[in-house]
Amino acid sequence: MIIAIDGEASSGKSTQAKKVADYFGYSYLDSGAFYRAITLFFKKKGISTANRINKNDLNKISLNSKYNDGKNSIYLNDEDVSNDIRSIGISEIVSDFAKEKTVREHVYKHLREFSKNQSTVIDGRDIGTVVFPNADFKFFLYAKPEIRAKRRFSEINKDDINYDSVLDNLNYRDTTDSTRKIAPLKKAYDAHSIDVSDLSIDQVFEKVLSIIEK
Q: Is residue 137 within a helix (H) or strand (E), and if so which, with residue range?
């Protein structure tokens, strides 16, 4: 069983995917975390723009994900980088790396291999359109940018970052993700759309669950 939950940045994809995985006892994958881990790898090498990466370096990148008791851990070459990949510095440049074809293909390989022999809930931006076009269930979450930015800002909770910068970064990511040539962010034709702007986490979950159990 493959359940794909796509959507805009900070629309609650990961939260819902985890809840669905917990409810059914399935595995969980956060595809965005894989892109962040690759971005972190190159950033540590002093590379902050995708056009400077050495594509051969991708062969040196091993990605893994472990999900237990509601916590998702991401491993980059066997090192737990779960906290490092959530920094604002990574958020500012991850979309640039994610639009590279070779980077996306590297992530696809890991996602498909991980899900080959187990039921999995996966969230991202092109899971239902590209990675698993034949997924058993597909969802697309969206919300007003201002609402998503407020949610993201409340999660960061750092004095040196203001709401406006979070909103600007989110709008930039939306534009970059939806206009890139390779696997742009868009709703799969057979996905269930859910506007989460005015819904609580539990209300969104109830909508998703009702569709799956129907």
A: strand 137-142
Q: Where are the domains of the chain?
A: 2-213
Which of the following CATH numbers is that of domain 2-213: 3.30.450.20, 3.40.630.30, 3.30.70.580, 3.40.50.300? 3.40.50.300
Does the pLDDT of residue 157 top 70, yes or no? Answer: no
Instruction: Tell the residue number behind the tokens 């998503």, with chain if given.
Output: 148
Label residue 107 left, alpha or beta by phi (over 0 means left) and psi (-120 to 50 means alpha): alpha
pLDDT tens digits, 103-125: 999 999 999 999 999 999 999 99
The distance of Cα 191 from the centroid of its chain, to the nearest Å, equals 17
What does the chain come to in residues? 214
Q: At 132, which amino acid appears?
A: F
Q: For residue range 11-45, what is the model confidence (pLDDT) as tens digits?
A: 999 999 999 999 999 999 999 999 999 999 999 99
pLDDT at 173 exceeding the cut of 90: no
Q: Are 65 and 73 in contact (CB under 8 A)?
A: yes
Contact 33, 65 (CB under 8 A): yes
* Radius of gyration for the alpha carbons in the chain, expressed in angstroms and rounded: 16
Token pair, residue 68, equals 């237990």
